[in-house]
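Marked as duplicate of an earlier ticket. Keeping the data here for the record.
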Amino acid sequence: MSEIWAKILGFLKEYNMTKAGDAVRNLDWNAMIHNPLFWLAIILFVGWVVWKKALRTLLVVCSLAIFVVLLHHTLPPSGETLTLEKLLPFAGGCLGLLALNIYFLIIRNG
């Protein structure tokens, strides 16, 4: 888990949030959904979660997926200004994800 977190932090250090947002916006989601390797990876991951009962890992992966969706829908493309009406939903969503992860990963430890 710490290895994955180090990779994520390395990505965020290398790319700022506008570059990360552009990378998400430029991703062809339709091609990804129709890719059999994508579905194979999801099925294998869900099977591993059920087999190992690794619900915390599932929580972290789902939180990262929700963060990507939040990033895609709230932050403007590079070159545009960040308005308060875009910043507030992004900050609220991030705080909600953070609170959810802290609750399930730290407070309900066990």
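See parent ticket for discussion. The first helix runs from residue 2 to 14.
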